[in-house]
Task: structure prediction
Amino acid sequence: TDTLITSFLMDAQRAARDVAGLPGPTPGQLVAAMEELENNIHEHSEAPDTGILAFRATPGVFEFVAADRGIGILRSLQRCSIFAGLEDHGRAIQTALSDGTSRFGSDTRRGHGFRPIFIGLANLQGSLRFRSGDHALLIDGTSPDLTTAQLAQKPVIDGFLASIRCDVSPQPGPGD
Result:
């Protein structure tokens, strides 16, 4: 229900702020990304009953995962005539993560769901893993973005998995 997910997301935001110690608006931005990924399970997977959303917070670290056993990114994008000819899972992941890309087409003002992940990780050490079909897209580093992504072929899985971890780097003090 909406009440359960709202409560869960509020708990995640508190944990990101109070336990992991993420600075400023970062906890809210990452929770917005979690909410978008949870919505995507219902909207795109065609198997929402298989979805899971989880988070973990420890001092200096916040991570979350969203996964489902649905149709995956490639088949979801192929539902749109613009992407009907797309046949590679790796290219599909790259396409889906690009800002403004949606299986509902480019005129729908949709396809900005992954933006909060990248914004939330600005100036933080991030590790992002996206998996669908027979590919994984991996991004590591400070202020991760698609330009630093590595695409790798993997064994085939059903559905989609997103795993995001951010580490709060200690800020140098005076004299460091």
